[in-house]
């Protein structure tokens, strides 16, 4: 079994020397660690808005805001990120007002600080990955491939809707859809038979399609322990599922092209092959649009093509 990848960490501290020392201690333990730095709130939020971060290590005071206030702002942008307050004095923190912001605490004075910090971070990230949803070993590379398509001019919604409708009709399914799976949500960029915007990644079947990077068929979600009891499936009338990974030019799975039915259904190999043909067409459209980028102001995650 492949070992878990090094987590992506953001160290936030307004003191340059103290921040550099924390980064140095972490990288001494794990030279391959993906370590990012920020000295104030604005820089920290810019990072979490533009890339996936597994864990944040923050001081108690950050350039006019407390570590808890910063943690709340970060969670607004990346709800599942693990956060560690790393300071020797947290007496001035308003823990009552931020009681819903769950963070861990580790004092700076702890012996063998780098190893202790990294162990805590790895444990938190591992716990989340096991509980919430499966994450590919190359998740950071996969997300980087996805971001390649979320650029100005990548308008794809009309095309994705059209292909979803064609697949739905061809396979006589209740709903056809195209979903791109980012760090925490699935964005439905095309849908026929329903009106979906986005959904938590942990509630979707497509995150499992992305994880295994091959076609996935679920004849009855009620009989699959991964999906039984998920209220969203009941609400939307999802009983069976077939999905094929949407791959980037580099072969990374960035989402899936799917059909679902409101009845138990064992999709045949031929039906999955037909779905794969529609997936190939969508992939070609993504690459074509990327090649002829127009420079408009909205990206693929939500933009309507003209």
Overview of this protein structure:
This protein is of the alpha/beta class and 306 residues long. It has 2 domains: 8-132, Response regulator (Rossmann fold); 145-291, Beta-Lactamase (2-Layer Sandwich). The protein is built from 9 helices and 13 strands. It has helices spanning 16-29, 41-50, 67-77, 113-132, 139-147, 157-170, 206-212, 231-236, 269-291; strands at 8-12, 34-38, 55-58, 61-62, 65-66, 82-86, 104-106, 175-181, 185-192, 198-200, 216-218, 240-247, 253-261. The strands form 3 sheets. Strands 10-9-8-13-12-11 form a 6-stranded antiparallel sheet, sandwiched between helices. Strands 2-1-3-6-7 form a 5-stranded parallel sheet, sandwiched between helices. Helix 1 packs across helix 4 (113-132), helix 2 (41-50) packs parallel to helix 3 and helix 6 (157-170) packs antiparallel against helix 9 (269-291). The longest helix is centred in the C-terminal third of the chain and has 23 residues, at 269-291. The model is unreliable at 294-298 (pLDDT under 50).
Short description:
The protein is of the alpha/beta class and 306 residues long. 37% of the residues lie in helices and 21% in strands.
Record keyword descriptors for this entry.
306 residues, alpha/beta, Rossmann fold, Beta-Lactamase, six-stranded antiparallel sheet, five-stranded parallel sheet, 13 strands, 37% helix
The CATH architecture of the largest domain comes to 2-Layer Sandwich
**Gross morphology:** elongated
- In CATH, the homologous superfamily of the largest domain goes by the name GAF domain
**Structural class, from secondary structure content?**
alpha/beta
User: Strand count, sense and closure of the main sheet?
Assistant: 6 strands, antiparallel
**Helix coverage percent:** 25-40%
Give the helices and strands as they follow along the chain.
Answer: EHEHEEEHEEHHHEEEHEHEEH
Strand content: 15-25%
Mean pLDDT: 85
Total strands: the figure is: 13
Q: What order do the strands of the largest sheet run in, or round the barrel if closed?
A: 10-9-8-13-12-11
- Kindly provide the radius of gyration, computed on alpha-carbon positions and rounded to a whole number of angstroms: 21 Å
Poorly predicted parts: 294-298
* CATH class category of the largest domain: Alpha Beta
- CATH-defined topology of the largest domain: Beta-Lactamase
**Number of distinct helices:** 9
Please tell me the total number of domains.
2
Distance between the termini: 46 Å
